[in-house]
Amino acid sequence: MKLRTLTLALGLSSLLAGCDQVPTGNSDTSATSTPAAINDTSAVVATVNGAPITESVIELYQEQMQSRRPGAPADRNTIIEEVINLELASQSGAKAGLDKDPRMQLQIDQQRRAVVATAAIQSHLDSNPVTDEELKKLYDEQVPKGSEYKARHILLEDEENAKKLIVELDGGADFSELAKEHSTGPSGKSGGELGWFSPKQMVAPFSEAAAKLEKGSYTKEPVKTQFGWHIIILDDVRESTPPDFEQVKPQLQSFVQKQRVQDFISSLRQGASIEMKAAPAATEPATPDAEPASSGSGEGLSLIH
Predict the structure, then answer these.
(1) Which of 19, 71, 87, 269 could form a disulfide with 48 if both were Cys (CB 3.0 to 4.6 A apart)?
(2) For residue 217, what is the DSSP state?
């Protein structure tokens, strides 16, 4: 795994998006989801048809606006007017019975759910802060150090065909042309180009074989990995220059926090009673990206197909 491509698929971002409105109701009356009465003792800034707008509401709206549009002007009078307009529109909708519409009640309940979930996750992160010791350990493990390699490869399904192509290479055949014609990997269409990669980006047998090659030479025996049989040619070698710890610390911290959230959700699922009432819709299995990017930029994946 290369530092610049540290990612973690959580699926929570969409769940927690759009949580910047204060819920006003709930269609579910169960004990686990009924919202608590609001205990707002802050000063009343304005009333709209008798409904109070408090200082806390204004502050919350201002925070939400700044979150959506960082650096946007935060004129207090403008904010108050916007909140008044929202309240007027809300009262109009309630008068028309829109808040009784089942789908509208579901939206309100979903928004309440997302707001509380966000608060729970943030509370968990606050209680389990990321330490510099963790970040430095991750830095040492993940940041590429030492040599980087630029190589091409031909991926085949069986050893016999791989050996036949090596014989052709020994006879002067062009490596890139053979890759275009025979490689089963996605890089085949570009002549097997893999770009620059560090050993950690590739599965061990592939990295070890590449590291033993001299520039311009290719493997005389096929290299077996879980993805098939490879013929590798080494085009170049260079020493990598890793970024400083402080430079990548924010990215590392984000990665660890996402892992914290994933572990938190996993622990909640393990302790919960979850009953699926209907089978989930069938989905097509995702096709994994097969190889490092071949642009030569050094971006890549951990495994090679």
Answers:
(1) 87
(2) -
Tokens of 56: 């806390």
* Amino acid letter, 252: L
Q: How far apart are CA 97 and CA 56, in angstroms?
A: 27
Amino acid letter, 195: G
How far apart (Å, rounded) are the C-alpha atoms in residues 63 and 191?
53
DSSP string, 155-203: EESSHHHHHHHHHHHHTT--HHHHHHHH--SGGGGGTTEEEEE-GGGS-
| pTM attached to this predicted model | 0.54
Identify the H or E element spanning 44.
strand 44-48
- Residue 229, classed as helix, strand or coil, is strand
For residue 185, CA distances in Å to 52, 162, 233, 291, 292 come to: 65, 13, 15, 8, 11
Note the pLDDT tens digit of each residue in 63-107: 888 888 887 767 889 999 999 999 999 999 999 999 999 999 999
- The helix/strand/coil state of 234 is strand
Asked if 210 and 149 touch (Cβ cutoff 8 Å), the reply is yes
Judge whether 233 and 175 are in contact, CB under 8 Å.
yes
H runs (alpha helix) in the chain: 55-68, 76-95, 102-127, 132-142, 159-170, 175-182, 204-212, 245-270
Closest C-alpha among 194, 196, 199 to residue 231? 194
